[in-house]
Amino acid sequence: MLEKRDRILTGDRPTGKLHIGHYFGSLQNRVKLQGKYETFIEVADVQALTDNFNHPEKVKKNVNEIVMDELAVGIDPNKATIFLQSMIPEIAELTVFYSNLVTIARLERNPTVKTEIAQKREIFGESVTYGFLGYPVSQAADITVFDGTIVPVGEDQLPLIEQCREIVRKFNSIYGETLYLPKAVVGDNKRIKGLDGNEKMGKSLGNAIYLSDSDEEIARKVMSAVTDPGRIKKDDLGNPDICMVSYYHKLFGKDPKEIEEIEKECREGKRGCVACKKQLIKNIIEVLEPIRERRRYYEERPEEVKEILMEGTKHAQKIAKETMKRVKEAMKLDYFA
Ligand code: TRP
């Protein structure tokens, strides 16, 4: 029997900077949990290559950005291990072993993968690559090689965690109790809408506020946010339920009374959209300023960032080796041990 214990494993694809959707969706949760459980945060550069194989320089550049974003939101390198996926060969090895336990039909049915393939026609054309179709298998290896049991992710990742659980169950039933069964933990704010009202905030959708945006960028983006289209003049009665500015006030406002007041004045046509947006800009800057300040600290100290990632990777390598030994024993691959 496996000894009972919990460990956090989560990760990000280094394909762009992190935005406030990531912040409310999963980063805040990570920061909160890092003191409670042993925490591993993977910079998933190998996974990023599955749909960026022709842009290796983009992946490389964003590794640093992601690490700085993590540190900026308050991930503490003394509490959490930040590491690089490509430096853990055991993940690739485990992916091969797991690939026997998954059918192609099951991968093709994975809702997240299905949606992504549909969105990436320009990369894959008519037929998707083996690597991309199989990335849930590799993600199962990411999680289990570190004995991750708690996986804080955004809602879109749930089918991937479910697929990982299936692999774990199948592995354990064939080779004996070897792997820990992970569980997804979704933050309170499951999915953050974009400034344009789109259900999802995303880099490719151009509707995101980044953690590293300047005051001017934040102001420009908020000024262009979608408000109640029925409200043309300031004293028209507004409907905050269909206004993105009101939606963001709820995320960024510290005082519930202020939020209530804003909505009331909007409904009564007493508060204009411009005043409302200005207030929001101020509130967003207030929340992001400490994050940006920490980010600036690390931007000025690239050696320190590199050191954190290197130390984290070393620690992760040790853990992965230990798990691999257990896995190989279970699979009767322990020849020269
Ligand atoms: N697929 C995740 C995303 O796109 C990133 C990721 C890679 C991940 N490996 C992971 C998340 C392991 C959780 C656990 O955001």
List keywords for this structure.
two-stranded parallel sheet, 5 strands, 337 residues, binds tryptophan, 3-stranded parallel sheet, mainly alpha
Structural class: mainly alpha
Biggest sheet descriptor: 3 strands, parallel
Total strand segments: 5
Number of helices: 15
The rough form would be described as elongated
Low-confidence blocks of residues: none
Roughly what is the average pLDDT, rounded to an integer? Answer: 93
Strand and helix order: EHEHHEHHHHHHEHEHHHHH
Distance between the termini: 22 Å
Radius of gyration: 22 Å
How do the strands line up in the largest sheet?
A: 1-2-3
Percent range of helical residues? 55-70%
Bound molecules: tryptophan
As a percent range, the share of strand residues is: 5-15%
Structural commentary:
With about 325 residues, the chain is mainly α. About 55% of the residues lie in helices and about 5% in strands. The chain has a three-stranded parallel sheet with strand order 1-2-3. A two-stranded parallel ribbon has the order 4-5. The longest helix is centred in the last third of the chain and has 29 residues, at about 300-330. The two termini are about 20 Å apart. The site of tryptophan (TRP) has 14 residues, from strand 1, helix 9 and strand 4.
